[in-house]
Specification:
By secondary structure, this protein is an alpha+beta fold. It folds into 3 domains: 48-152, 2-Layer Sandwich (Beta-Lactamase); 161-291, PAS domain (Beta-Lactamase, 2-Layer Sandwich); 303-461, Reverse transcriptase/Diguanylate cyclase domain (Alpha-Beta Plaits). It has 13 helices and 18 strands. It has helices at residues 6-45, 65-71, 75-81, 86-89, 95-105, 154-181, 227-240, 288-302, 312-325, 344-351, 353-370, 394-408, 437-453; strands spanning 49-54, 60-63, 111-119, 127-138, 144-152, 187-192, 197-202, 207-213, 246-253, 261-271, 277-286, 332-341, 376-379, 384-393, 411-414, 417-420, 423-429, 459-461. β13 (376-379) and β14 form a beta hairpin.
Length: 465
Amino acid sequence: MEHNNPEKLAGQFHTDSYEALRNEYNALHNELKDTRLRLDLLLDSIVGGLFSYDVITGKFDYIGKGVLSMFHCDERQFRERYFNLFELMVSTHDREAVMKQIDNQLPYYQTIELTYRANRFSMDDSLLWIYHKARLFTDHDGRKKYYVVITDITEQKLIQDELNRANQKLYEERERNRLIGETIDEIQIDYDVKADIMTYLRFSKREKINVVKNFMKDGMSSDFIYPDDYDNVKKEFSQALTRPVKQAIEYRTTIMTGEYLWVRLNYASFEDKQHQMIKVFGILKDITEEKREQEELMKQIQLDPMTGILNKVSTQTAIEEYMQQYRTFGDHVHALIAIDTDYFKDVNDTFGHLFGDEVIMFVVKTLQKIFDSEDIIGRTGGDEFLVFMKDVRKETAIKRACYLNSAINKEFVHDGKSVQLSCSIGLAFTDHDKIDYMTLFQRADKALYLAKEEGRNCYHVYENE
């Protein structure tokens, strides 16, 4: 019986194992080649290019052929040009915004989409518009990388810019037509920013009223604008030359008829693609009648409906505004005179409210006769009145208070009824003190109280304690 040789068996085993391993290696090697070939074909078929970079360092890891073709360079040139950093590939116009977008999205999103500009490898260093779509991956060693597919969208951007310009022109024309459509016999303004020329055109006759060269340089034709309105108009118009706006402003001008009229200017300003202001269009509308109606309505709001003098709120407002603007000097002061009709409630209770209204009207007419038109006269309550005398001597104000006491102290007869009238008066002065309205009013009111305490039908002057 033949026995197997152990050494021979061991050698045969090693030979078979080696052959099996070599065959497996060759199979894996061929599969890897096929995978690489398929990957290269896939990368070559991508519209644009592919690269990857380290999230922490920002350094490029892989740069595909499509990227190099897009930038017209080889890999060495690409890495040298941008110092092997993704951040430096992005144009300085967009770099800060792009890096901020990536930092903001990194904690929340695996995929990031961006649009930015990069500099081409060309003599003129022209810009390339790029659409960038990146996905975050973590390698086996824990390093985070962005794998990025980029596409050249420069041509699309140029088309979009052209469309935007066309839309801008369409918008300007539509806006001008809208403004024109709202007019009847109004005036169009057309300001060419670069030429600094303002053209005024009357619609009804389609004729140019005026063409002003060096419009802003020479001070916006201040001759046409009412002096008190000029600064505000210049401020508003100047702001319209810094950014696109759609606004309205009201002012007085002689441009329509040669006489000052109130107008409302509805205007819009426009910029070009470089964000430079190019045009201001507007419509001037005569609103003089509208202003008159507003002023009439404002008077009605400010006035006491029965007597036609200022009401309580308007009286305080008028006095406060005057005190803030004007101070007194020398022996002149501002005087506040508080007046109450004595026992007016008894008059109403005895003779009725219609009779009481006639008493109030008598008091008002007396106040208007004794005090000057420049003085502020207001009704602050049923039978309560205030008079503010501007820049007067104390003696003058006191004399007027005496006259008022005498003029009111009489028998008032109306419709067969009669009543003895009188009034109590309190006076307070500013005395060059920087006091506010409420302080002055409280002093006059305290003096009025003391006049009533002294028996009424008299006046009392407030004295500093």
